[in-house]
Amino acid sequence: MTQEGYELCQLEGRNPIAEALAAGRSINKVYTLQSARHARSDSTLTRLVADCKERGAVILYVGRSTLDAMATSGAHQGIIAEVAPYEYAELADILAQCERLNQDPFLILLDHIQDAHNLGSILRIADGSGVDAVIIPQRRSVTLNAAVAKASAGAVEHVPLCRVVNLSRTIHDLKKQGFWIFGTTADGETPYDKADYSGKIAIVIGNEGEGISKKLLEHCDFLLTIPLHGKVNSLNAAVASGIIAFEAARQRTQK
């Protein structure tokens, strides 16, 4: 792991904070409603606050208006925590761990995703589909903030997130290591459910407005398409990644 922290140092909502505790994150300070002092009012919130206190967090009881002013995700659920900074995972470490476990790596690469909810949802999808790591570029990508953590439903604590200088170079290095690279595009030649997802694979998801950049598309071994039957001819990044990732997971668990 690197020593460089994420931007995210504040968690909002019960599930993100509970998952942070489960993952062993250090929680420094907790802001919660005055009512959390009393178990009868909301036992779930009271238990979570007690768990944070037991782990050494300083507990501050405040009014709802204070939490509303502090929150950036719009859904604090009566609790906000100040936490130790996250650390990015090193891709080399992830690949080495997969080799030690004798398993083929399954990666998702995000080409400059801009929306916090998309990134959070993709992390949640990655956790559910058994992805080994999600990779983002250092620049022109959404920062990891409380909205991302909230949308991930706690998956941010369990899915390694790697940040690389250059996605194109990363894909080139992965291909040298035997990875098959799958791109996603509306005019792709391979239906997503007809592709072979065995072996070392990386799925590239484009950003919300322009999709995958032309340069990255040229590096893809397969261009996947998701057949649509309605009048709206596009899916957002998170939905597309979910459809493809779970199909890949289905195939990989059957082999």
What does this structure look like?
There is one protein chain. The chain is an alpha/beta fold and 255 residues long. It folds into two domains: 10-83, 60s Ribosomal Protein L30, Chain: A (2-Layer Sandwich); 91-254, Alpha/beta knot (3-Layer(aba) Sandwich), CATH 3.40.1280.10. It contains nine helices and eleven strands. Strands 7-6-5-10-8-11-9 form a seven-stranded parallel beta sheet, sandwiched between helices. Helix 5 (116-129) links the parallel strand 5 and strand 6 (133-137). Helix 1 runs parallel beside helix 2 (43-54) and helix 5 packs parallel to helix 9. The two termini are 31 Å apart. The relative contact order is 0.15. Residues 1-6 have low confidence and may be disordered.
